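Table S7 (text form). Paired inputs.
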Amino acid sequence: MAADSFEYEVARGARNSADPHDDPGARCVAGGRRAVKETDPSRIPIIREWEYASGRVIAFSKIDSCLGAIQIADNRLLRGAHFSMFASGVPYDTVQFVAAMTAAGFQANLPILYFGGGVQDWLPGLGMNAYMGVAPFAHPVADAAQRQWIFEMDNGAFTYHSMA
């Protein structure tokens, strides 16, 4: 299967998981938290601001001036994390970024793909740290339109899909 084959399920899951009391600031202060929203029936994690998850298929809520991070862990496993500005009161909270990347299991010795509407702002804003200095990911994902994303890693085949 390719990532785009999950679009309907992820769109439905994102709509159904909308929470007016969502508090990304609390997740930021905690150094990120494991994603708690998922789709039905495939149980694809929907990674919201200051959340992380891993799996064969992962989805991101809208990356709106946010930063997304993806890492291929092995032939059937992806790691993902989603960051937003000002959640802790500062635009680029490097301490909490590093804490969340560590909690998510990202490895500083494997390439990481950063994507989102403001990647060029985020990279210098976060400064040099163990996760920002790693090799770039081989698949460029441009997100000027700030969309939702689905990523899949299936037997070494990496696919991704941008949702409107």
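Next pair, protein 2 of 2.
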Amino acid sequence: MNVEEASLAVCMQVVAAIGGFSGAALRDAKEMSSGQITPAEFGQRLRPLYTTAATKLRELAPQAADGTLRTAIEGWAKRMDDGAAAPDPAEYHTAHMRPINDEIEKTCKLG
């Protein structure tokens, strides 16, 4: 497997990790919008999702043969940590997840 193929394989795993995070967050957001949970409960549910995503990204980073991709993955993991530590994870999510997803798409050349 060459560097480009290896990078694509790692990128697909990054997308899966973030996709799992996003799917769970979307489910919780729907519960909030329907009144089943409060915005504060939504934020509290995001914390472990952010932590899990950060851990998975940290596990993937060393697998990236390309140094630029490895650095990007480490940065995304740090931003997931920031979301878990944010005073209001729901607010952090609103402000930061779209740019993170856009960066992943651009870096992994998915779009």
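Helices lie at 3-33, 39-60, 67-85, 89-107.
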